[in-house]
Amino acid sequence: AQAKVFWLFSTSCPLQQILSGPRPSTKTNKMASWITSPTGPMTTHFWGPIANWGLSLSAIYDANMKGPEIINERMSATQVVYSALFMRFAWCVEPRNYILFSCHTANVMAQSNQLRRWGEYKLQQEPETAPAELKNLSMLGAGAAGVLATSLLIRKPVQSAMTSMGGPFAKIATAPAGPFYIHFWAPNFKWALSVNNLLDYDRPTDKISLSMTAALTATGTIFMRWSFVITPVNYSLFFVNLVLSTSSGYHLARKIKADYFSDK
């Protein structure tokens, strides 16, 4: 009996060989941990930012495959500011989202390149009117930068004053997704993308980027879901993405109809 017990705990026992067999590698453990992590591919925290990569990738695709005549300079300029705000948003949101941060960093650079291409194209093709168009776009950019800078300067004093007033003013001032935090401004600036879509409701389809409208539609649809799984839950983010997906989907449908279903 003692021999049998000794054999059971010896290395020659099949059970001991199984238990002492090779363990999963560190790489395998890290991969499994990432897959099941709060920002892994089993969550919207992963697929929302991945969808946003479509914005920068579409700009890179258009820069390499399409002419500058299809560039919507107002939309590209808006996306530069929008992505800059979302870089900060991605850093502050819980859980912190490095994929979202990286995709918006890429989009700032890609859309800036598109603006460069548009400016060069206008100066070459329309030398008489191009300076005025470039001036108008620059003024819009300077205005947006001025508003953002002023907001940052007065944020703390105004928030402190409203907090000391108590009641509903204090609730607004201290709300995690209120007007004194990036959780409010990044999502709400996204309205500018929808406004651009509405202003371009009759834009000629040959000047619509199929890849960009598809990317805007996809990111709007996925981020409708994402707005409910982040902390804090962001209802303004939901509604702005609802409008974005709808307005972008309208232009996407126009483009597909013109390119693939037109009788011409």
Terminal CA distance? 92 Å
Q: Would you report the number of β strands?
A: 0
Compute the average pLDDT.
83
How is the biggest beta sheet arranged? none
Structural class: mainly alpha
Q: Outline, from the CA principal axes?
A: globular
> Radius of gyration in whole Å, from Cα?
26 Å
How much of the sequence is in beta strands? Answer: under 5%
The run of helices and strands is HHHHHHHHHHHH
Oligomeric organization of the protein chains: single chain
- Counted by DSSP, the helix tally is 12
Q: Which segments are poorly predicted (pLDDT under 50) over 5 or more consecutive residues? A: 5-9
> Percentage of helical residues?
over 70%
In short:
By secondary structure, this protein is mainly α. 75% of the residues lie in helices and 0% in strands. The model is unreliable at 5-9 (pLDDT under 50).
Could you list some keywords that capture this structure?
single chain; 264 residues; mainly alpha; 12 helices
Description:
- This protein is mainly α.
- The chain is built from twelve helices and no strands.
- The chain has helices spanning 2-8, 14-19, 26-35, 44-65, 73-92, 98-125, 130-165, 167-174, 182-189, 191-199, 210-226, 235-260.
- α5 (73-92) packs antiparallel against α6 (98-125), α5 (73-92) runs antiparallel to α9 (182-189) and α5 runs antiparallel to α10 (191-199).
List the helices and strands and how they pair.
Blueprint: H1 2-8, H2 14-19, H3 26-35, H4 44-65, H5 73-92, H6 98-125, H7 130-165, H8 167-174, H9 182-189, H10 191-199, H11 210-226, H12 235-260
